[in-house]
Amino acid sequence: MTEVTNSRRKFLTKGAAAIAGGAAIAAAPTIARAAKPVVLKVQAAWGGGIFLEFAKDYVRRVNEMSGGSLKIDLLGVGAVVKTAEMQTAVHKGVLDGAHLVTAYWYSKSPVASLFGTGPCFGWSANELMGWIQYGGGRELYNELMHERLRLDLVGFFSGPMPAQPLGWFKEEIKDSSQMKGLKYRTVGLAADVLQEMGMSVVQLPGGEIQPAMKSGLIDAAEFNNPTSDKDFGMQDVSKDYHLGSFHQSQECFEIIFNKSLYEKLAKEHQAILEYASEAASSDMAWKAMERYSQDLVKLKNDHGVKVHRTPDSVMKDQLKAWDIVVERISKSDPFFAKVIASQKEWAKRHGAYALNNAPDYRGAYEHYYGKL
Asked: Is 300 a member of any domain?
């Protein structure tokens, strides 16, 4: 009996110790760390400013969420290839990924512009992303990438951008007729639209906009927002800044990776690359609220910039021009027409809810702060 009792005690003591040890292990973080992290070389289309900051914000999320097992090495603009060649470089595996906008590969297909610089159907960039995520846009994007263009790419959308200002002019624009004949910088389908309005359009990368306007190569220009525009020094070549426009009223960033490489990654790494784009998307929208409004105040108070609301006549003519451009391209490109139809159907249904549900925010603002 004594021997049996002692054996039983030893068993219970060792069992309790094992259970306690197991509980301690279970309570500790269980992050699997690879002996050597997977490193992805990703080039950004941005040489500096807040857009490069947004790209870094995404990269930081990926690196931190992976616990060190996945690392993005972010390269600046032109580090490996020119911006116009980035998509091809990722397709061929020269780069593992890229942070850009779809307008930068618009020359390969006008449909690209519909995922960032397309017509406004009464929606914002955040609603464009709603269509992409849940309204059939992602499937059409994949069809464009994989079936139409035969590109070895996988992509995610991130960061809904506020409607882009009409931009910087040498004098205040009070009527649409003043736009005719002006040499103007923009990109994507917006170039077709403004040409339809009688402007002469030049497509330039961001860093060349201010010098081009300073030298007289262009008469007017837009890039994206008050922060980027201030960083480019647009306030030094113009004092008339026009907010509000339909030329690029809904756009977001595109983050692409080589598809063959992506599919070889661990499932958790694939998930991190995708879900970090969603997390960064929310953060970018919030950060833009803070920074863009701050820098608009600085442009006015510190640099004497006169901020104007773009006249209704300009925006009405933009919508008419969009109708002409969309009809023209749709007749020659059935897939373009297919994407437009999907967008219009979704925007019509969602807009009937969103626009009727939204209170008069301007009225509330002016109730507290006076007329804008």
From this structure: no
